[in-house]
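Regression check, flavin-adenine dinucleotide case 585:
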Amino acid sequence: LLLTDPSQVQNTTYDFIVVGAGTAGNVIAARLTENPSTRVLVIEAGGSNTGPNSQNIQVPLFAPQASLPNTRFDWNYTTIPQKALNNQVLAYARGFVLGGSSSTNLMTWTRGSRDDFDRFAQVIGDSSYSWDNMVQFFKKSEQWVHPRDGRNDSDEFNPAVHGNGPVLITTEGVTSVIDDRVLATTQQLPAEFPFNLDSNSGDLLGVAWLQSSMGGGSRSSSATAYLAPVLNSRQNLDVLIQTRATKLIQSGSSQGLPQFNTLEVGQTSSSKRFTFTARKEIILSAGAVGTPQILMLSGIGNPSDLAKLGINSTVSLPDVGKNLIDQPIVSAQYIVPNDTATLDPITLGEDPNAAAAALSQWNANKTGPLTSAGSSHIGFFRLPNNSTLLQNGDPSAGPSSSHYELAWQPEWAGAQTPPTSGRYVSNIHVVTTPTSRGSITLNSSNPFTAPIIDPNFFATDYDLGVMVAAIRSALRFIKAKPWNGFVLAPVPGFATVFADNSSDADVVTYIRQFTRSIHHTAGTAAANKEQGSGVVDANLLLKNATGVRIVDASVFPFLPSAHPIAGVYGFAELLAQKIKTAYNI
Ligand SMILES: Cc1cc2nc3c(=O)[nH]c(=O)nc-3n(C[C@H](O)[C@H](O)[C@H](O)COP(=O)(O)OP(=O)(O)OC[C@H]3O[C@@H](n4cnc5c(N)ncnc54)[C@H](O)[C@@H]3O)c2cc1C
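Current build output:
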């Protein structure tokens, strides 16, 4: 049942309570309720993924609008001023809707590398998280569907890599004017930019066709793929939306440890509070911002920090909210001939007729330019082994992991103020193995006050150096022969960086002005095998307590050296199985 007010919930006790109907939360809820005798209550702060404006979270090309601040789908967070970015305050998107950030993200689907997951296994102390074991859970979460335009996609992916799960994965719904040029560049410069048929195979490196979580011409989220098919048919599943978990309440002790089986919820700062009890566990899946916030509101964190806000300590776990990892992203744009069929006439608003025609085509049969997620290709790369950036050690998980990512878009994209006309190709650059760490801290003991968010971008010279290297690498790509006569010039704001004699200082100036978050927040309730550090153990159970497990991006001790959501789904599938085994359900 879908419920919108806590007073509508008929029962006060369930087997499991899941906090957050986001990416991971819906996987857990859907898998646990496969057994009809297991009763699950899900609490979600945001609203429905259907209804007013929901086209923005369905149409692939509208994905950048899905996460805009001040919409009903976003938490509307901002960061504290970022010192390394000229003290800019950045928008910090998080999905506030059924499906969480899987309903609002940019849909890029990358698992990461074999070494990324083997490092997880080592740090968490459990071989379940190794690449070889995770493949079955990746496959359990997704399946390949063919691109919307019906073209032959056999040279765009490897079917053996993909599975038979609910999330739909595909390449762009339409081909683009840059596809041939990107592929020709991989042939011309194969040493630096090799072609990779499917970078979800564990071998991440090289340039691949971009895979996105969409199918049938629409976004595929945990709400559409996992929740919607079972929500009305399973009597043992209740989902309460528009309701926030305000704190965990200690219900007693078990095995000499504080036990948390009771959850307090409310709809506004001053509204009545309700409590629900879990017979077995409360599973926090509120994401890398929400989960540490709930823990700290419950007295779980650094006791002296919490005391300053008048919160009594229940469990001392100083790493709650620490170790925030995010990846910085910066874009560059190039001017291409005005008769080029880029996506700009639609996305920049220059041609309202083209935009209207594209929307009616999408409404009629879910085909056409709106079935593009924006990028055509994505590449993951390593610094050269002799790079001075690696002289103090390699922060990546191993030789199959990346240090940076490049992607190419047949349209204007980036933080710069967009023009209203013209045709462009954009290049994005991402540091995928950053060494900077930020934090989530409480601003107040009021659960309806946003926490203090600090991604702490470019706190290390390594991160800044990798971004410079990524931009220089992208320049070698775009200055290669296949782009001659097509890329006419960089946009004026990128001209200094583009110049053959640009200095590193020029590149850094650009980076400081235009870097944004890619919104891959993770690590704020990290899993760790060491006693005395981290927040959860190898089974993702809260340390020094009983009754609480955490399944979301906050448990990643590192980010995969790619986009994280396929890994979040994979972890959630693995944990659903671990929980079923633990309770014999
Ligand atoms: C704009 C944007 C673009 C991104 N692009 C990509 C991409 O292209 N590819 C990729 O791999 N990753 C991308 N990411 C990251 C990816 O989407 C996330 O890492 C992933 O979805 C996180 O899953 P999660 O389960 O940890 O959290 P979420 O999916 O965010 O779920 C958390 C849920 O908990 C709810 N919640 C939070 N607090 C409370 C509370 N107190 N009470 C009740 N409910 C609560 C939230 O409303 C939300 O529904 C992007 C993220 C964003 C925001």
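Comparison notes: The chain is about 25% helix and 20% strand. The first strand starts at residue 2 and ends at 3. No diff flagged against the previous build.
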